[in-house]
């Protein structure tokens, strides 16, 4: 998750630079977001096992299909959120280049 997040951050900066969207002196990102994003990604990623633990307490059994599904959902959501800003600026850059 950290590697994907770093790559997406670098792509975000590249695409925002190529789109010429920043005025001199403007920041591309708030510094607090750089600190908060990894924490939020980790919360989304770990939400799957927390939900599985809750379901295990409620149903008193372990269902491996539900566990793997929740893990995939948490990871997919985290990756989607990490990729989204870079993807949006990529499309802004492409549309602006036309």
Short description:
The protein is mainly alpha-helical. It has helices spanning 2-18, 31-59, 64-97.
> Please, how many helices?
3
Supply Rg: 18 Å
Largest β-sheet summary: none
The H-and-E topology, N to C, reads as HHH
Q: Can you give the helix content as a percent range? A: over 70%
Percentage of residues in DSSP E strands: under 5%
Shape: elongated
**What is the count of structural domains?**
1
- Runs in which pLDDT lies below 50 for 5 or more consecutive residues are none
Quickly list its features.
98 residues; mainly alpha
What can you tell me about this protein's structure?
By secondary structure, the protein is mainly α. It has one domain. 82% of the residues lie in helices and 0% in strands. The longest helix is centred in the last third of the chain and has 34 residues, at 64-97. The mean pLDDT is 81.
Present the secondary structure layout:
Blueprint: H1 2-18, H2 31-59, H3 64-97
Helix pairs in contact: 1-3, 2-3
